[in-house]
Amino acid sequence: MHLHLSNKLKIEEKMKLSEKKGSMLHGVLLVALFSCAAFYIGDMPFIQKLSLSPLIIGIILGMLYANSLRNQLPETWGPGILFCSKRLLRLGIILYGFRLTFQNIIEVGLPAIIIDAIIVTVTIYGGIYIGKLLKIDRGIALLTSVGSGICGAAAVLGAEATLKSKPYKTAVAVSTVVIFGTISMFLYPALYNHGIIDLTPEQMGIYTSSTLHEVAHVAGAGNSMEKEISDSAIIVKMIRVIMLVPVLLIISYSMSRAIAKIRRRVGIDSHNPNRSSKVAVPWFAFGFLAVIGFNSLNLLPEPFIDFINRLDTFLLTMAMTALGAETSIEKFKKAGLKPFILAAILFLWLLGGGYLLTKYLTPYLM
Questions:
Q1: pLDDT at residue number 47
Q2: pLDDT at res. 342
């Protein structure tokens, strides 16, 4: 009888596990469906003119879902949505490396690399400092600064995976990137084509790529100017993308230091003040770097690389959609207007400071 009861319990456990996996799959399929819709919408002519990537459309669809149908669907679907916002996110960041090669770094030259490094450093550290002055949530300030300084939504996703912040903070940061990045995409070509920005085509390529938020924004702005600008701008932009790796490592190290200070403050490890909290290494960042190295060997055919890039865009869209699905209007209200004020200040720095750096620094570096 005891053996029969034991077998019955095992069967019940297997049934519960099967139901859990089925519910999780439902959540994943729901996110995948929204992501397919994001790609469909992204192919519309009007959306293509705005250069809005499926990632941005995905988070918007996810937020619409969060504020309408979310409460009417089973809660057991939640783990599937969480899986997309965490695990698929990391896989998407790793595969993002297939868009880059180390040959890109050599091609752009020293001026672009130095200006990119200055822009990224000042934007992130400046954004964190301004965030403190405005008394903004540290997570939102950091995500907003990283998104503005590196590569928009993809950088926000990478930082979110390291910080493990709440989804609504990610959504707020991405929203600021979308707003000011889109403004920049239309503003830069208008200023250049009307002669207001007096830069050479080579300088304009560096300026555009080192200060615009998204890769899509750089492509959209470049296509509205000369081909020479467009071609160089995309390559230089990718250098900023590669800088995501050291930034994530610095963030992880800083988090470990902060945690160690808190532990000592509350009395934990007070007997060993020199002990620091273990650094949570963002391994996906090294995966991203390893993929870049592999892609630099040119071992895979171009059609296969294109397929991987399309798959990666879909995975990142699923991650963005899932993050949006965890973001309600109430959480946006909780964040307030201050994150958008921070993003506006960073936008003005990128617009003005980036111009001055490009105009007066590049002649000495070339």
A1: 82
A2: 95
State mean pLDDT over 271-278.
50
Top pLDDT among 247 and 86 is at 247
The yes-or-no verdict on residue 262 having pLDDT over 70 is no
Q: CB neighbours of 99 closer than 8 A, spacing ≥ 6?
A: 238, 241, 309, 312
- Calpha distance 153→166 (Å, rounded): 15
Q: Once rounded to an integer, what is the mean pLDDT over residues 13-34?
A: 69
Mean pLDDT for 61-86 is 79
DSSP class per residue in 9-73? HHHHHHHHHHHHHHHHHHHHHHHHHHHHHHHHHHTSHHHHHHT--HHHHHHHHHHHHHTTTGGGS
N-term to C-term CA, the chain: 85
Cα separation, 149 vs 118, whole angstroms: 10
CA distances from 244 to 22, 31, 177, 286, 350 (A): 36, 26, 16, 11, 18
Q: Are 131 and 145 in contact (CB under 8 A)?
A: yes
How does DSSP classify residue 73?
S
Answer for the pair 15, 71: CB distance below 8 angstroms, yes or no: no
Choice between 69 and 39, residue whose per-residue pLDDT is larger: 39
Q: Which whole number is the average pLDDT over 15-37? A: 74
DSSP annotation of 77 reads: G
One-letter amino acid at 9 equals L
Helix (DSSP H) and strand (DSSP E) numbers for the chain: 17, 0
CA distance 221 to 116: 18
pLDDT recorded at residue 264: 67
Separation of alpha carbons 27 and 117, rounded Å:
40
Dist CA 193 CA 244 (whole Å): 31
Of 363, 152, 125, 345, the closest CA to residue 240 belongs to: 152
More confident residue, 106 or 203: 203
Rounded distance, CA 175 to CA 155, Å?
A: 13
